[in-house]
Specification:
Elements: H1 12-23, E1 38-43, E2 48-54, H2 63-67, E3 72-74, E4 79-80, E5 86-93, E6 104-109, E7 113-118, E8 123-128, E9 139-143, E10 153-160, E11 183-184, E12 187-193, H3 195-213, H4 219-234, H5 240-255, E13 264-269, H6 281-301, E14 307-310, H7 312-321, H8 323-334, E15 338-341, H9 355-373, E16 379-381, H10 392-397, E17 403-406, E18 421-425, E19 431-436, H11 448-456, E20 466-471, H12 482-490, E21 499-502, H13 505-515, E22 521-523, H14 539-565, H15 573-586, H16 598-627, E23 640-645, E24 651-657, E25 667-668, E26 675-682, E27 686-691, E28 703-706, E29 712-715, E30 719-723, E31 729-734, E32 739-740, E33 748-755, E34 774-777, E35 781-787, E36 791-799, E37 805-813, E38 819-827, E39 832-839, E40 846-851, E41 854-859, H17 865-869, E42 873-874, E43 878-883, E44 886-892, E45 897-901, E46 904-910, E47 923-935, H18 943-951, E48 955-959, H19 961-973, E49 977-980, E50 985-992, E51 1000-1006, E52 1012-1018, E53 1022-1028, E54 1034-1038, E55 1040-1042, E56 1050-1056, E57 1061-1068
Parallel strand pairs: 13-20, 13-21, 14-15, 16-17, 17-19, 18-22
Antiparallel strand pairs: 1-12, 2-3, 2-5, 4-11, 5-10, 6-9, 6-12, 7-8, 7-10, 18-19, 23-27, 23-48, 24-26, 25-26, 28-29, 29-30, 30-31, 31-32, 33-34, 33-39, 35-36, 36-37, 37-38, 38-47, 39-46, 40-41, 40-43, 42-45, 43-44, 44-47, 45-46, 49-52, 50-51, 51-57, 52-56, 53-54, 53-57, 55-56
Bound molecules: zinc ion.
């Protein structure tokens, strides 16, 4: 080295910019490494001849269909479009003689996504065109060794007119799609690579990153920079030997080993494909094939390389649509290179789906992986979901998994989550080993700088010196690229850098589990401090989901009942599974949260229509099997009504029967002319018959009147509710407790229109500052509609704006303190949000929110930034505010966004974001909610049961009373299942067993947070009973005893812990 020129350490920025320029395309590419990357290149005819066929409209035809069409000649510069269209190109390729003996690649860049097909119709590999930077992947290896006498070969290219993030409009990734987008064929060349030049590029990329990221105190930083600088010095663009001399220089740097104390990175390739988001489900099916076929090729080329893919649904799509590819995936799964992971049907949202839905995600997912890959996933894999319910640790454990991976909490916008590797403890005390990748991404790019800084971000390195690193382009970027694998292979063990190995995620978790020095814990939900609007956006989808969950619940339960008594009734296992798969599909983490583009919701509407229609038909089939001997075809001749109760406790309710016209009817509801009938003490999971000629006059009627102030007063045996002229509740008096629930000068049922302008993520985020800007919405009309004796109601009209309005029916029945609100909203706003709030004379630092199979308490104050961040939270069927001795619950039939600040509860009803769906939530909406005052704090109440009832109407069938009453017992007046001794335990699900539809599964859970000893009795012909996990595998045998005196059947007694989910399998004597 010449001492006069060796002053690098005095001008490091100049030198590092020099190295950077050497590695980048652009201004210096004719003199830098890019001048040497390809030894040869040819384009156009005679070597590459191209012909083209555009599929009509927006169809996505199969290969077999496309290959039969007439193709016309094109050349580079040809354009493809519009957005979402499909075009096919047939390329006839003749490799030049001078490429003999060399590896030859076909560079095909249509600026969008494409699939390379063989002439025989085999899907070979995905292409990601140039329009999305960083994910460019356009080369396909034609041959590793070209032959001299090689003839012409034909390839087909299926061109999908979308980028990996769909077709966003101008200015933003999430702008609604630009349907007119076009893509241009940039290149279609045959090339031979200069492998040494590529090696130099990979080496120097690492050296430059190491210099930039390592601290200046590290000698390795300086060694990296001077090594890279020396390499530039020896390089000559026209001298291949100079590249080999440069590689001799870098070899010395990489030969210096790190040692065992260095941080160990477990690297796993992946290609996170959102099952729908800025593109529809049908495009995802092709994205999966494109990305995974690309990865299969890398697995052949890099034997140590490992790749994980989640979501059983995506595997099933591949299996159905690309059976040959699926076989290759199965083969690579056997060798351990292709790793099916996650255990769930799709990577679901964990806020909105019910407890049973989460259970089904695992049941369907694990069953699929077991059947087709002979393995279950031990890792629950959810890198990108918007918050994690406190019941997940238990559900994960009960589903055969024990580890959890995510990283999404790194997006929190208020508090930094304090852990990387920890034990996450759920609601019931179950815990799972959890890791949040310190790289803070699941689409890492395998650069040295990312690896170095991810070690710096590891928050638990004192207890465990390992981390998981998920790299690879997602969403159609095809997963890891060649350069990423090349770089990682260079960084296996290099002094100054973390050590890297390709590994199955299980290897990481098992190692940490065994070797950690005691891990920290985190108890309760992993609340995501962002995307709080996802509890509300796309309201219709959320409503359909709730409706589908309860409809399938009824179908399964009634089908079990029907099978037990009706000979020849076959439990529709297959159809039920098909519908659960559809419901689970729509629970994907960009679909049900409401963050997809408009065409996705056209698909979900059609899917839900299928679910609702098919499930309703199956429910009807079960009812016919159960009650055919008594039920009438129409209500016209009915002298009685038969009610079926699918909840697990007796119910007395006023039921609205549409179309019924009978002399004994006491009241017809004016809103819809439905007859009102009291169903008294309908037994749990059983039936009762009401005599329509018996007027049931013993109940004390509900009354309604307008008082001298103009307030409307609704009153029954339990409460007096006073509605002011603005449509708000100004007083709610509990007559049983002689207690006013609304504080002086406060009100409940107050509507507000808030500004709703987030920082960036429009459909995703409700932001805290929007709470500062709101307008109260008073009613312009309050009219008495129904005047009892069974139901009294008031209709309220509230103008929201010039273009939007709300109508609401507030009703009180004669037999319950529950005040019901049915809403009908015509909604045409832009970036506004509709909320309704309730202020109660109740004080508590905590409010109770229903979550999956349990409840969670969250603060009603904002003491700390962690409390404050929860200004909008998720709840399922209810929110409750209780104090010693008393409480009020707010029930709902399809709303999920809530807050409680002090003694004011708010429910978010509708939003109006404009991206990525420009028409999100525009139009008509109907929903219901209710106020349920109760004696005793939440823990001593029956709020959970009341919320089920609010969502699950009694099933009604018109009958001839005499015939039905006599036949009632055979039809089910004795409950099929009943729970005794444990009012805190809720029986949720009854279904046929997966392995044998003769056997029956009953799922229940402890709902209030206390121990219980429950006795479960069934009148089915049971020969044995087991406690099982969610996968329906035996955990314990349960002792069967004869049922208690006075009831038929067999019983099992079960000890249940707070918030425990218990699954019982009854083996039925055939
Ligand atoms: Zn995602």
């Amino acid at each position: 080295m010449d001492p006069n020129t060796s002053y690098l350490q005095k001008h490091p920025n100049v030198t590092s910019s020099r190295v950077s320029n050497f590695l980048n395309k652009g201004q210096w590419e004719e003199t830098n490494i890019h001048a040497s990357l390809y030894d040869s290149r040819v384009s156009g005819e005679p070597h590459v001849k191209m012909e083209w066929w555009p599929a009509p409209g927006l169809e996505r035809p199969t290969f077999a269909h496309a290959a039969k069409q007439e193709f016309s000649p094109i050349s580079t510069g040809h354009t493809f479009g519009p957005g979402w269209a499909t075009h096919w190109v047939r390329a006839t390729i003749k490799i030049p003689k001078e490429f003999e003996g060399k590896q030859v690649r076909f560079l095909f860049d249509p600026e969008c996504e494409a699939m390379v097909w063989s002439a025989e119709g085999e899907a070979l590999q995905g292409i990601t065109g140039a329009s999305d930077s960083g994910c460019h992947h356009v080369d396909f290896i034609l041959t590793n060794k070209a032959k001299a006498d090689e003839g012409a070969r034909i390839l087909y290219l299926e061109i999908a007119c979308n980028g990996l993030f769909g077709n966003p409009g101008p200015h933003s990734l999430i702008a609604p799609p630009n349907k007119d987008r076009r893509f241009s064929l940039r290149e279609a060349d045959l090339v031979v690579l200069n492998e040494a030049a590529w090696a130099m590029l990979h080496d120097m990329g690492i050296l430059l990153d190491a210099y930039k990221t390592l601290p200046a105190s590290s000698p390795r930083a300086w060694q990296a920079l001077s090594t890279a600088n020396d390499m530039v010095n020896v390089y000559e663009p026209n001298d291949k030997a100079s590249i080999n001399r440069a590689l001799e220089i870098s070899k010395k740097f990489f030969a210096s080993r790190g040692g065992e104390a260095n941080h160990q990175v477990y690297a796993i390739g992946n290609c996170h494909i959102d099952t729908a988001w800025l593109w529809p489900y049908d495009e995802t099916k092709r994205k999966v094939a494109r990305s995974w076929s690309t990865q299969l090729d890398y697995m052949d080329r890099y034997p140590e390389y490992k790749f994980a893919a989640s979501q059983a649904q995506q595997f099933e799509w591949l299996q159905t649509l690309y059976p040959a590819l699926f076989k290759r995936v199965q083969e690579k799964a056997k060798t351990g290179q292709f790793i099916p992971i996650g255990g769930t049907w799709i990577e679901m949202d964990c806020n909105i789906p019910s407890g049973e839905s989460l259970a089904r995600q695992f049941l369907l997912g694990q069953k699929y992986f077991e059947k087709h890959f002979n393995q279950r996933s031990k890792v629950f894999w959810l890198p990108d979901t918007f918050g994690y319910s406190s019941q997940l640790p238990q559900i994960v454990r009960l589903s055969g998994a024990e580890y959890f991976f995510t990283q999404k909490l790194s997006w929190n916008n208020i508090n930094k989550f304090p852990h990387t590797t920890f034990r996450w403890i759920g609601l019931d005390g179950s815990h799972i080993l959890t890791h949040m990748a310190p790289a803070e991404t699941y689409t890492a790019n395998a650069t040295a700088s990312q690896l170095i800084s991810s070690v710096a971000r590891h928050k638990d390195i004192s207890y465990t010196n390992e981390s998981l690193y998920l790299y690879g382009n997602g969403d159609g970027g095809g997963g890891p690229l060649e350069d990423m694998i090349e770089r990682l292979d260079r960084m296996k063990d290099v002094d100054g850098l973390p050590r890297v190995k390709h590994a199955h995620p299980n290897e990481f978790y098992e190692h940490v589990d065994k070797t950690n020095k005691g891990l920290v814990t985190w108890k309760g939900e992993l609340y995501f401090e962002l995307h709080r609007g996802t509890y509300t956006s796309q309201a219709k989808t959320k409503k359909f989901n709730r409706q589908s969950e309860f409809l399938l619940r009824d179908v399964e339960m009634l089908s079990v009942m029907a099978k037990s008594i009706a000979h020849g009734f076959a439990y529709p296992s297959k159809e039920i599974e098909r519908l659960w798969k559809l419901v689970c599909l729509n629970q994907f983490h960009d679909v049900i949260p409401g963050t997809s583009i408009e065409i996705v919701y056209e698909d979900t509407d059609a899917i839900y229509a299928d679910v609702v229609q098919s499930a309703t038909a199956m429910k009807q089939d079960a009812l016919i099997a159960l009650f055919n001997h008594v039920s009438l075809n129409s209500v016209d001749e009915a002298t009685g009504m038969l009610f079926v109760n699918t909840t697990a406790w007796p119910r007395t309710e006023v039921v609205a029967v549409p179309g019924l016209d009978h002399a004994g009817i006491q009241q017809v509801r004016k809103q819809d002319n439905a007859a009102l009938v009291i169903a008294t003490s309908v037994p749990e999971l059983g039936v009762s018959v009401v005599d329509l000629t018996d007027t049931g006059a013993e109940s004390i009627p509900v009354t309604v009147f307008k008082d001298t102030n103009g307030d409307v007063v609704l009153e029954n045996l339990y409460v007096t509710a006073r509605i002011g002229k603005h449509g708000q509740l100004v007083s709610l008096w509990d007559k049983r407790d002689e207690r006013e629930l609304i504080p002086d000068n406060k009100r409940a049922n107050v509507f507000y229109l808030h500004d709703d302008i987030p920082l960036f993520w429009d459909a995703w985020d409700i932001e805290i500052y929007n709470l500062e800007k709101k307008a109260e919405l008073p009613a312009t009309k309050v009219v008495i509609v129904d005047e009892g004796p069974l139901v009294a109601s008031v209709c309220i009209e509230i103008p929201i704006s010039e273009q939007s309005k709300l109508r609401q029916w507030v009703s009180l029945s004669a037999i319950s303190p529950r005040l019901d609100f049915a809403c009908d909203v015509d909604w045409h706003e832009s970036r506004k949000c509709l909320k309704v709030s309730f202020t109660w004379d109740i004080y508590n630092d905590m409010a109770t929110y229903e979550t999956q199979y349990g409840v969670i308490q969250r603060p009603t104050h904002r003491n700390t930034t962690w409390d404050m961040a929860k200004f909008e939270v998720c709840a399922h069927k209810f929110v409750d505010l209780s104090e010693y001795g008393y409480g009020v619950a707010l029930l709902n039939d399809c709303k999920y966004g809530y807050s409680t600040l002090g003694n004011t509860m708010s429910m978010t009803l509708l939003r109006s974001p404009k991206a990525p769906d420009a028409n999100c939530d525009m139009g008509n909406h109907t929903f219901r909610y209710a106020i349920y005052p109760h004696k005793g704090a939440f823990g001593e109440s029956d709020v959970v049961q009341e919320a089920y009832q609010f969502n699950i109407p009694l099933v009604q069938l018109p009958v001839d009373y005499e015939i039905a009453a006599n036949a009632a017992d055979s039809a089910g007046a004795t409950p099929y299942f009943s729970l005794a001794g444990a009012p805190n335990v809720v029986l949720d699900t009854v279904k046929a067993a997966e392995d044998n539809p003769n056997d029956v599964i009953v799922r229940m859970y402890e709902a209030y947070g206390g121990h219980a000893r429950a006795t479960l009795t069934t009148k089915l012909n049971v020969s044995a009973a087991q406690k099982t996990n969610i996968l329906e595998e035996k955990m314990d045998n349960l002792k069967i005893s004869p049922a208690a005196k006075g009831s038929k059947g067999k019983s099992v007694s079960i000890n249940i812990k707070p918030f425990e989910i218990v699954t019982v399998k009854f083996i039925i004597k055939s």
